UniProtKB/TrEMBL annotation:
Residue ranges of the region described as Disordered: 326-361, 702-723
Protein's name in the database: Uncharacterized membrane protein YccC
Family label: Belongs to the YccS/YhfK family.
UniProt-annotated location(s): Cell membrane
GO cellular component term of the entry, any: plasma membrane
């Protein structure tokens, strides 16, 4: 993509406005906390301290809107405390330019490295630096600085207290994540009725897994209905695919296929009912037709072998979904509702038996998280790290922007570095899109605020009320688009600084010009010191191949010695391959917007290879759906094939990174030996495993053909299947 086209795409992305579900109660709660803090500060300390405390309350509320699974009061407290420390250190050095610049560079560098801990930490850290640049100009002494820092912390405490006293949808984010995962499974089941090879996006399952991790305190308070369905949904996923698959399951047409379609439709209905119950905390209401389809004895007469095993496991898993989704919420429903749900679960379970509940995932407390975050930040201090490059860029731009703002005759030189710090991200497209959006939002916000000021000449109280109104709009509309949020923020800062005694006329031209300067600095810095994803695409593809190979090998290995192996290594390998797949897709999406020429991986090769790896994962998933129990008959040849898969994919990943085409001779030889040892006159009790192994080899060979640019032998390849 050329630079001109890349700039057009990022500008269009930054200025886009989306229709999102609004959360007015949460927005009102945040604005009420801000109003309470401003009112208290005005009554006891005056408008200057009120401005500082308002920034603390404003930032604490914004922190609670970030995508994080930690309790919202904790986010507000962390935001308020970290901002108070940042601003107090800035106060102490603000009168000495060299010392303040050194602190600014160090603090901004650390904020850039904070992205290693995740987007939430990176955004909060960047916001702290940006707000510090404004608040350090307000106090006049060390004592006043301590008061300002204390009031900033007070703003965070107020927001945290309001969240505790006036909760809005307790565990709402976790409920939505789990419900989305079950709804995605339901949609997948329905699509499999018409397309047995329908694709599936694992992101909802990955999100639900992240949401399921809890601290010890959260584990004691978590609703029972949030404790089990995620693990069941994870196990349903391969069972659904195995039941619908035509290569290792029932024929494409016939009475068996019709029965499978009925089971898939019933599974979709049950999963949808569970998703609705969990999302809203209501009882599970099952459709009688779905229950009848799942418990009918006709399944055993129509299906045999792997399809019958898949149908039995599906019934057991769905019964577990019903039971866990009911939770303790059934105490509020009448006896007839409880009995109907219980009878349905027992009727479904009667066909195959239940499954054990998995222990909950543990999330470290904040104190235990500190060494983990420090370790992740230290790991990014290496050449070629995108996070390190971002930290270097943002720290240099902050210092240069502050010097430029100070040298210009406008005054209030912090606008330039503040704008740069707020828009800069480790990724090119986000940095450029946010730069354009911030400039556009600044023009709109400052113009509207200026028009109001010039026509009304508001006093301190009126300015405070207008700033709270702008904050309310910000909280309400911030998810609709960055440009909308920046318009509200710009007007908020104009009113707030005017309340603190700033000259109204100084917030018009200087904000626009200095914001433009900060945005341009951010964009220029990325052009001069980039961290492109395009050159790393082969590495991401190799990581996905290696993870897929480990997953396939772990699954095949289970058939070799069922009694001696557990399923933990399969689960671990599955999670690794999902993360590698998402990392590849995110890198590919990012690279498509970068003004960088292709380096060794064409768009066609990227499409073909990712399709092949999806097929490799799908074949392994079909085998996982029928993992043998401890008393199953061992398959000795599977061990040799698993080791060949593991070694070959590791070597293949290295070949991909070195721009070579992988060779799968070792896998072919292992599978050929297995075929040779299977005498035609003896047959196999269950040829399912060896047939699945051939699918694995076909996917690997398709990967090499796609990487080499050779045409596919099959003009109509099967649809892509994600894990």
């Amino acid at each position: 993509m050329s630079w001109l086209r890349a700039l057009k795409e990022t500008a269009r992305s930054g200025l886009s406005i989306e229709r999102r579900r609004l959360e007015p109660l949460i927005a009102i709660r945040g604005a009420a906390g801000l109003a309470l803090v401003i009112g208290t500060s005005l009554a006891f300390f005056g408008p200057v301290v009120a401005a500082s405390s308002a920034f603390g309350a404003f930032q604490a509320a914004i922190a609670t809107f970030q995508r994080s699974w930690r309790p919202r009061p904790v986010l507000a407290l962390v935001s308020g405390a970290s901002l108070a420390v940042s601003t107090f250190l800035g106060y102490l050095t603000g009168s000495r330019l060299p010392l303040f610049l050194a602190l600014l560079v160090l603090w901004t560098f650390v904020a850039g490295l904070a992205w290693a801990a995740g987007p939430t930490a990176g955004i909060i850290a960047a916001s702290n630096v940006a707000i510090m640049l404004v608040t350090v100009t307000l106090p006049t002494s060390v004592a006043n600085s301590a008061v300002h820092a204390a009031m900033i912390l007070f703003g965070g405490l107020v927001q945290a207290a309001l969240i505790v006293l006036f909760p809005v949808r307790r565990w709402g984010a976790q409920r939505d994540a789990l419900a989305d995962a079950l709804a995605a499974e339901a949609d997948y089941a329905r699509r499999l009725r018409h397309d047995p090879l329908a694709p599936f996006d694992p992101v909802p399952l990955m999100t639900a897994r992240s949401a399921a991790a809890v601290t010890p305190r959260q584990a004691r308070r978590r609703p029972p209905e949030l404790r089990g369905p995620r693990g069941v949904a994870e196990r349903i996923r391969p069972v659904l695919a195995s039941l619908a698959d035509p290569s290792l399951g029932v024929p494409s047409e016939g009475p068996e296929r019709e029965r499978v379609r009925e089971l898939l439709a019933a599974a979709g209905s049950v999963l949808d009912s569970a998703a609705r119950a969990i999302r809203h905390g209501d009882p599970v209401e099952l459709a009688p037709s779905a229950v009848a389809a799942l418990k009918t004895p006709d399944t055993g007469t129509l299906l045999t072998g792997p399809p019958l095993r898949a149908a039995d496991r599906l019934g057991a898993l769905l019964s577990d979904v019903i039971e866990t989704a009911e939770g303790e919420g059934t105490k509020e429903q009448d006896a007839s509702d409880r009995s109907r749900a219980a009878e349905a679960a027992e009727a479904i379970k009667a066909t195959s038996g239940g499954t054990p509940a998995a222990p909950h995932r543990r999330r470290p407390t904040l104190l235990r998280l500190v060494p983990v975050v420090l370790k992740e930040m230290r790991a990014e201090l290496r050449p070629g790290s995108p996070i390190l490059r971002h930290a270097v860029r943002v720290s240099i731009v902050a210092a240069v922007g502050y010097l430029i703002g100070t040298a210009l005759p406008f005054g209030h030189g912090y606008w330039a570095p503040m704008a740069a710090v707020m828009v800069m991200r480790p990724e090119f497209s986000q940095t450029y899109a946010r730069s354009v959006a911030r400039f556009g939002g600044t023009i709109v916000g400052v113009a509207l605020a200026t028009a109001i000021v010039q026509t009304t000449s508001p006093g301190v109280t009126t300015a405070a009320m207008l700033s709270v109104l702008c904050a309310l709009l910000m909280y309400l509309l911030m998810r609709t688009g960055y440009v909308v949020g920046q318009a509200c923020v710009s007007a908020y800062v104009v009113f707030l600084l005017g309340m603190a005694g700033d000259n109204w006329s100084q917030t018009v031209l200087e904000r626009v010009v200095l914001t433009l300067a900060g945005g341009l600095l951010a964009m220029i810095s990325y052009a001069l010191y980039p961290a492109w994803e395009t050159p790393r695409l082969r590495g991401r593809l190799g990581d996905w191949l290696k993870a897929d190979g480990r997953y396939a090998a772990s699954v095949v290995d289970q058939y070799a010695e069922p009694a001696a192996r557990g399923h933990d290594d399969v689960r671990s390998a599955l999670l690794d391959t999902r993360e590698a797949r998402v990392a590849w897709q995110e890198a590919l999406a990012t690279a498509q917007h970068e003004p960088v020429r292709n380096r060794g991986l064409s768009r066609a090769a990227a499409d073909d290879t990712q399709h092949a790896l999806a097929q490799l994962g799908r074949a392994a998933m079909l085998l996982e759906a029928h993992l043998p129990g401890g008393g199953a008959t061992p398959v000795p040849d599977a061990a040799h094939l698993a080791e060949a898969l593991r070694r070959a994919t590791e070597q293949g990943a290295k070949a991909v990174r070195e721009r070579r085409v992988p060779d799968w001779a070792e896998v072919r030889e292992a599978l050929a030996e297995w075929d040779a040892r299977q005498r035609p006159d003896e047959g196999e009790a269950d040829p399912f495993v060896r047939e699945g192994a051939h699918l694995l080899l076909e996917a690997l060979e398709e990967f090499s053909r796609g990487l080499d640019g050779k045409p596919k032998p099959d003009a109509n390849p099967p649809g892509e299947q994600a894990l």
